[in-house]
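Subject: for your reference before the review

Hello V.,

The reviewers asked for a structural picture of the protein, and I figured it would be easier to keep everything in one thread rather than splitting it across files. Below is the amino acid sequence we used in the manuscript, unchanged from the supplementary table.
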Amino acid sequence: MATGDAHRIALYSGWDTVVAAGHGTVVVATVSAATALDAASGAELWTMAGSAMYAPALIIDDHVLLTTEWGVVSLLDRDSGAVLWTTDLALRVFNAGVVIDHKTAWVVTVDGKVIGLRLVDGTVVGALQHSLAYNFARPAVIDGMLVVGDQDAVVRGLRLP
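And here is what came back from the structure prediction:
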């Protein structure tokens, strides 16, 4: 069990413009598009249409992972915006978001599912119905455990493979 502030995270993300920053890139998103900006100059690098503002964008090395509220997950080249893969989960994600553990993106859906996507190609590698309650909380990974809070007032820890 984790205690103190070492693993503190906001488990409920806000409903406004999401900003991700890293490796000289800033990604901002709205209800209509995500835009990557050069962190030094503010110049626009690329824009991708889609409502990616609720689930936070993730910058992973040379890539950006975007998730729409409707469960479309895309991995893009950080510099060019070229889409490397897209997976449509056909499940609403809204602002629950995605967390990365090793080479897997773990997506938490509104209907209480957790789905693993292989980062290299977007292939689904696992799925679990962890709750029947609605989930709008952002997940966290702590010591190999996926931590998810639901609207049934239960926080669950799922041991990752």
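For the response letter, the relevant points are probably these. The chain has no helices and 15 strands. The domain at 18-159 is CATH 2.40.128.630 (Lipocalin).

Happy to draft the paragraph if you're swamped.

O.
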